[in-house]
Amino acid sequence: QVQLVESGGGSVQSGGSLRLSCAASGYTHSTYCMGWFRQFPGKEREGVALIEGDGSVTYADSVKGRFTISQDNAKNTLYLQMNSLKPEDTAMYYCAAKRGGSCPPVRLIPYLEYSGQGTQVTVSS
User: Fold this and answer.
1) Which backbone phi and psi does 82 adopt, to 5 degrees?
2) Tens digit of each residue's pLDDT (9 = 90 or more) over 90-114
């Protein structure tokens, strides 16, 4: 059974950085599409970034150049390095996964097969 557990959220000031982690179990990274999405206080969801089974990555325009998705296959962990954070990045962040190495468009990451319980990120101005 696939399990995803996020950590690393917190409160930072505008311009700060955070690194989110997603500990995964029950599958092999290279055969899965992995990604991050966020849910804003008004409940809207936004796909943030994805990494395909071959390692290629895609980002939402809103985070391009500021966020970096990566994975450590040996540790079965997915990361999201977030730099130059803005108040509008405040949201609950979730990691998500689907079987098969190819991913849908990043906007559809919130609808992948599996997701974790989320970790809160709050950015103050």
Assistant:
1) -120, 115
2) 999 999 999 887 899 999 999 999 9
